[in-house]
Design brief:
Helix content: over 70%
Distance between the termini: 69 Å
Order of helices and strands: HHHHH
Shape: elongated
Radius of gyration: 23 Å
Strand content: under 5%
Largest sheet: none
Length: about 110
């Protein structure tokens, strides 16, 4: 599999691979993606991505397209959920420590 400097394009390529799409179709969809860099103008990035989405519309059925696009979305790919779970764990630990310290202070004040 080719690697792409721009993260969103790389995620699209990975999502296409994960969906077990034939390599020749992936190559057609990803055509020109290797020329898009992190520093490429946002308009050029958007233009390439629009072209890739149009090529997906022509080459893939709707169910596979939907699955590939979901695989690229950070909120659906599990990143956001993972972050929220970590924050929740930290909050629980913080609350437990706060309660412990509050009890300790209360006990010392009462002694």
């Amino acid at each position: 599999m080719k690697t792409y400097e721009y993260g969103r394009i790389d995620r699209l390529a990975q999502s296409l691979e994960k969906a077990s799409i034939a390599q020749e179709i992936i190559e057609q969809i990803m055509e020109g993606g290797e020329n898009i860099r992190k520093g490429t103008a946002p308009e050029k990035k958007a233009e390439w991505m629009k072209g890739a989405m149009n090529r997906m519309d022509k080459l893939l059925d709707s169910q596979i397209r939907h699955s590939v696009r979901e695989g690229c979305a950070c909120c659906l790919g599990g990143k956001r959920l993972e972050i929220v779970k970590k924050l929740r764990r930290k909050m629980i630990l913080w609350k437990q420590e706060y309660r412990r310290q509050t009890r300790l202070i209360w006990c010392l004040a009462m002694a």
